[in-house]
Specification:
Number of helices: 12
Structural class: mainly alpha
Strand order of the largest sheet: 1-2
Radius of gyration: 22 Å
Number of domains: 1
Length: 329
């Protein structure tokens, strides 16, 4: 079976729907502990690797290699997205169970939004190759912001998000959420959205903004719509369990943003160079894919490893004794 055939698309989409329904049935309505999140993160990664094996069986390393590289990029970039989700959920005081429901429906919306962007991007690239230079320059600009920006995720203020201001001005919103965490309710016989629905809008709009970075990065690896979509889908499927795992370990990933900046800079330069020297790339496609996968996976592992090994300097709290200055000899 060749890649991109209707049979493979149908089989993949049916598989995605099946595992999402099973996951929701098994874990829906229950609090997600760090141990459970780690288990499910492993399950999703294992399923993605198994799918890469299927692609290798169907199309060899030229199919499995780009998928794995794109999957690693998308999964790595999604961690930065999760830090923003943590801030949003903390700001709106969203419970653990409600977070699970929000991320579930956020994934459904992400499939639709990202699928649309992927097909538009792939169609644009197939007609206008020079667009790849713009994608490469955009990735380099994003990398520069990650590497040299002095701000951090704490600067995110949900109250200033345009989608939230619009929703509060236009939509009928109830004063509080329902006990079963629904997105709609009735008050005095009138239909209202709950505050939880506003948080869902913030999650969807945030994911859309991050997709503007991640999709060009994945398109730098492959312009095959099936490879791009399936790698995005597999990364998104593991996003919920990864969120609960990252939220319990977020203080340990000090150097992850630096690693992500290096990855984006690498794929941006790679995209520009490969577009300029397309003939050479076509002759050495397999080797270049393996090199890209090694660089990206190595950078990600290195940034996580350094974050764990190098402890942050101690911070003084109000009232802590200050060490006296060493007198001059």
């Amino acid at each position: 079976m060749a890649l991109g055939t209707p049979q493979l698309w149908i089989a993949f989409l049916v598989g995605v729907v099946t595992v999402v329904v099973i996951d929701m049935r098994v874990s829906g309505g229950k609090e997600v502990t760090p141990r459970k999140a780690a288990f499910w993160t492993g399950v999703w990664v294992a399923l993605s690797l198994a799918f890469a094996g299927v692609l290798y069986w169907l199309g060899g390393s030229k199919a499995a290699g780009p998928f794995l590289t794109a999957y690693v990029i998308e999964y790595a970039l999604s961690v930065d997205n999760l830090f923003v989700f943590i801030i949003v959920f903390s700001y709106f005081k969203v419970s653990n169970i409600a977070q699970h429901r929000l991320l579930y429906w956020g994934i459904v919306g992400a499939f639709v939004l990202r699928g649309t962007l992927i097909f538009l991007g792939a169609s644009l690239v197939s007609r206008f190759t020079w667009v790849l230079y713009i994608f490469g320059a955009f990735l380099l600009f994003t990398a520069w912001k990650l590497l040299f920006s002095k701000g951090d995720e704490e600067a995110v203020d949900p109250e200033n998000l345009a989608v939230l201001k619009w929703a509060r001005r236009v939509l009928p919103v109830s004063a509080q959420n329902t006990e079963d965490n629904h997105f709609t309710t009735r008050q005095d016989g009138r239909f209202h959205f709950t505050p939880l629905f506003l948080v869902l809008l913030v999650v969807e709009s945030t994911d859309l903004l991050f997709a503007l970075d991640s999709i060009p990065a994945v398109l730098s690896i492959s312009q095959d719509p099936f490879i791009v979509f399936s790698s995005n889908a597999c990364a998104i499927l593991g996003l919920r369990s990864l969120f609960f795992l990252v939220s319990s370990l977020m203080d340990k990933f000090r150097y992850l943003k630096t690693g992500l900046g290096i990855i984006l800079a690498f794929v941006g330069i790679k995209l520009i160079v490969e577009t300029a020297f397309h003939g050479f790339v076509a002759q050495h496609e397999t080797a270049l894919i393996l090199i890209s996968l090694g660089v990206i996976a190595g950078t990600l592992a290195g940034s996580i490893g350094l974050s764990v090994l190098i402890k942050p300097p101690p911070t003084l709290e109000p009232g802590d004794p200050v060490a006296p200055a060493t007198p001059p000899e």
